[in-house]
Automatic annotation (TrEMBL):
Residues 5-154 form the NADPH-dependent FMN reductase-like domain. Pfam families: FMN_red. This is FMN reductase. One of its GO terms (molecular function) is oxidoreductase activity. The lineage of its organism: Bacteria, Bacillati, Actinomycetota, Actinomycetes, Micrococcales. NCBIfam families: LLM_duo_CE1759. It comes from Flavimobilis soli.
Length: 205
């Protein structure tokens, strides 16, 4: 049985962070949904708060630090990506955008992805559709239909029976799990030699 790797990218700045909380819920629910389909799953969380200086340095120099390289490799090697940002000035945070800016543009091609966002009020919920979804469409990620937004009030009744946030989390996680169950990573498109045909094979044609 193949173990599916779920990597959650959380761009929250505070500790504790509602952004991290949502990332944890989405990734845990996806792992549960995968296990329900007979697949093992692991979860790894990349906290961008801890990588803020490293991301800035890479944008200036073009070279990642060791720990930023580790985070980038985790995202590239994931079978599923959960990406969650706080909303700043009606869009994703600068730290969130900067992390995906330093990724190779081919890193997320075809990767099953679930989007999430947090903010103080529900009026920011459309950020998922007007900002996040277009960005991940440009990166050619395989984004599931349901994205999850959590406002401050959503956390107050999040454990109550019939609460909306857990319902949305389960639905989105189920969609992601279904994509992941049939996901087969192709060649690493960020490696210029990944699709190179050996010289001997050319001669045999």
């Amino acid at each position: 049985m193949t173990t599916r790797r779920i990597v959650a990218v959380a761009a929250g700045l505070s500790q504790p962070s509602s952004t991290r909380m949502l990332a944890d819920r989405l990734s845990a629910a996806t792992a549960d949904a995968l296990r329900g389909q007979g697949h093992e799953a692991t979860v790894e969380v990349v906290e961008l708060r801890d990588l803020a200086h490293d991301i800035t340095d890479m944008m200036l120099t073009g070279f990642p630090s060791v720990r930023l390289s580790t985070a980038i490799d985790a995202v590239k090697g994931a079978d599923a990506l959960v990406a969650v940002t706080p909303v700043f000035t009606a869009s994703y945070s600068g730290l969130f955008k900067s992390f995906f800016d330093v990724l190779d543009s081919k890193s997320l091609v075809g990767k099953p992805t679930l989007l999430g966002a947090t903010a103080g009020t529900p009026r920011h919920s459309l950020v998922l559709e007007h900002a996040l979804r277009p960005m991940f469409a440009y990166l050619r990620a395989d984004v599931v239909p349901t994205a999850v937004f959590a406002a401050t009030d959503d956390w107050g009744d999040s454990d109550a029976e019939g609460a909306e946030l857990p319902t949305r989390v389960r639905r989105a996680a189920g969609e992601l799990a279904t994509r992941v169950a049939s996901y087969s990573p192709g060649p690493d498109l960020t490696d210029p030699f990944a699709t190179l045909v050996p010289f001997e094979q050319h001669l045999s044609r």
